[in-house]
Amino acid sequence: MKNKFIQLTMIATMLTACNAPKGNEVADDFNYNDEQFADLQMIRYKVQGFEDLTLKQKELVYYLSEAALEGRDILFDQNGKYNLTIRKMLETVYTDFKGDKTDENFKGMETYLKRVWFSNGIHHHYGCEKFVPAFTPEFFRAALKTVDAAKLPLADGQTVDQLCDEIFPVIFDPTIMPKRVNQADGEDLLLTSACNYYADVTQKEAEDFYAKMKDPNDAQPVMFGMNSRLVKENGKVQEKVWKVGGLYTEAIEKIVYWLEKAKGVAENDQQKAVIEKLIQFYHDGDLKTFDAYAIEWVKDLDSRIDFVNCFTESYGDPLGMKASWESIVNFKDLEATKRTETISSNAQWFEDHSPVDSRFKKETVKGVTAKVITAAIIGGDLYPATAIGINLPNSNWIRSAHGSKSVTIGNFTEAYSKAAHGNGFAQEFVVSPAEIKLMETYGDLTDNLHTDLHECLGHGSGKLLPGVDPDTLKAYGSTIEEARADLFGLYYLADDKLVELGLTPDKEAYKAQYYSYMMNGLMTQLVRIDLGNVIEEAHMRNRALIARWVMEKGAADKVVEFVKKDGKTYVQVNDYKKLRDLFGQLLAEIQRIKSEGDFEAARDIVENYAVQIDPVLHAEILERYKKLNLAPYKGFINPVYTAVTDAEGNITDVTIDYTEGYAEQMLRYSNEYANLPYRN
Ligand code: ZN
Q1: How far is the CA of 269 from the centre of ligand 1 (A)?
Q2: Measured distance CA(337)–CA(427) in Å, rounded
Q3: Separation of 104 CA from ligand 1 center, angstroms?
Q4: What is the mean pLDDT of the chain?
Q5: Are strands 560-565 and 568-573 parallel, antiparallel or unpaired?
Q6: Which of these, 217, 221, 454, 526, is most buried using a 10 Å CB contact count?
């Protein structure tokens, strides 16, 4: 599972946009931001610590990163059967066109191609709707005729005109393949979805096919259908398995080649066992082998380097079975993991000193150590749009029997926040230069700490009174739970204990998070909601609940207030100490609601504070945000790894370079990792 909580937190972080380099850091001239087009912003990430890995570890990262890139075409084809053909047509015109490249049609095609690269296909990566091309079919047909036909994805004996006739409706006709994944209730989800996981099969036929396979008494069920396309051939419904010798063999063989090399430099026997099982699965395509691999992977805890390289998430299949191919290679961030270990090892102290009624406290509490990782490369369905946290494996029985690994990706978090610095957001929404300075000095640090406290302690704190059903709060449960975890973090951020533990540098730092949290909860998170709508998502509700509740309860003392300057609304915090007391009071109340299972109180507090939006304020915030011209979606450009070899071909070093541009990278990948035929 992609860690949705962390993704959402990060969006909030980005929106608070007060994440400049920490005060104690040397100024950072790394170029985080690359180009912006359509609704997308490209960002670079730094792989801190790569240089400090041993040569053998660098070699391992190198082999695994090659394996991560070899599967790129698989995802393009999974996302739609014409994607590889369309990509090749666009790329050929993009590089070889001899006409006027400043022409509106050419520029429209360029943006379209950049979006196709980003989405690994012709549908939006998030909304799933087909792109509307800002260039004409006449222009594209004429342009295709000017380039070398040998470079075009022509079928046997096909002319350029015939290729255009075949493909143009897919690009230009809005009624053809309008959605990659259709979830509309009542329609045949397979026939109306453009994804390439099923061919000539109705939803009913697919459901019947898999229903027959399932054995309700199997305590260890495999994830049926996850590694195949379901087709109907000669009237018979059958699976075409993605494996060596099967569908996608050309790409999978290349992946296996690099995995074999990686196996040779594995850090230890457990990691070697993981790689061996994965290779075996790519060969036999047997889902029992996949489960065996997943179990070995969960057990691999001591290696510095870790990776995912397989068919993994099923969000791209309307039936939620077929898994898209993805890869990430990473290594443990020792420094950041030390931070979460410090928090976890003091979990009992935090529980004992929290402001909640002692009846609701745990006698013995165990903190969770969140592992923080540094991503080295991303591929497939994690590239270039990516998750910020990952929690795998997805198999439920393996999760219960063997556990799972949950990680947050530290260098992505950092790149997001650094890239947001200087985008004008803070200048627009923060009340004065003093608060901006506060956030520039401490923002990154306290943001990470708040997330750590939320994850490592907040969710695990407190207990239900005997006999209270955990589902009592029903639809309000998740908002209350997130509020509880957030408040636990907010309350302790201001505690001297954090300075004592060396987690915060001084007694001022917490104010950065307090200010940004209030600004976000009261105002800026609203930029993600369309005018006229209410707040629905649980994390957004929880932030509104907390911010509005403490503002109201502290109103008599003007703890927090809205102020107007030049007709614009700002949040001003007047008393940080009292604000902390209010967070403590609300934590006590929210914990009571949870512990007692007080449904009425949960409903009242959520409905009164967390749902409705002041339409005047909302319109103002949207208007101010729009003027900043920020892209709502971000994606990452990978670094380039190069193996340095001696005369015998032994690797003597692996270098890393960050200068490759977006189009340059995509064209290189399309050239070096073009592993699949255009029509699969
Ligand atoms: Zn949470």
Answers
A1: 35
A2: 33
A3: 47
A4: 93
A5: antiparallel
A6: 526
Question: What CA–CA distance (Å, rounded) separates 607 from 421?
Answer: 35
Question: What one-character-per-residue DSSP string does 17-57 give?
Answer: ---PPPTTSPP-----EEEEETTEEEEE---TTGGGS-HHH
Given a cut of 60, whether residue 24 has pLDDT beyond it is no
pLDDT digit string, tens, across residues 93-150: 999 999 999 999 999 999 999 999 999 999 999 889 999 999 999 999 999 999 999 9
pLDDT of residue 18 exceeding 50: no
Distance, CA 538 to ligand 1 centroid (Å)?
10
Tell me, what's the pLDDT at 2? 55
- In this prediction the pTM is 0.85
544 in Cβ contact with 515 (< 8 Å) = no
For residue 212, report the distance from its CA to the centre of ligand 1, in Å. 38
Rounded distance from Cα 6 to ligand 1 centre (Å): 8
Report CA torsion sign: 142, 143, 149, 152: negative
Provide mean pLDDT across the span 314-332: 95
At 383, list the tokens: 């590239």
Residue found under tokens 């497939």: 380
How close is the Cα of 485 to the center of ligand 1, in Å?
6
pLDDT band at 154 (very low <50, low <70, confident <90, very high): very high
Check if the beta carbon of residue 210 is closer than 8 Å to that of residue 197: no
Least confident span in 105-114, 192-201, 237-246, 338-347: 338-347
> Ligand 1 centre from 84 Cα, in Å?
39
Report CA(324)–ligand 1 centroid distance (Å).
Answer: 26
- Centre of ligand 1 from the C-alpha of residue 516, in Å: 18
Tokens of 152: 């075009």
Interval between CA 178 and ligand 1 midpoint (Å): 35
- Residues, the chain, total? 680
| Residues in contact with 425: Cβ distance below 8 Å, sequence separation at least 6, in sequence order | 15, 17, 524, 628, 630
Q: Which residue is listed with tokens 């054995």?
A: 215
Say if residue 1's pLDDT is above 80. Answer: no
Instruction: Give the Cα separation of 227 and 238 in Å (integer).
Output: 13
Of the listed ranges 269-273, 398-402, 594-598, the least confidently predicted one is 398-402
For residue 7, the CA-to-ligand 1 centroid distance in Å is 11
- Say how many Å lie between the CA of residue 605 and the centre of ligand 1: 19
Q: How is the chain split into domains, by residue range?
A: 5-72+246-635, 81-177
406-434 mean pLDDT: 91
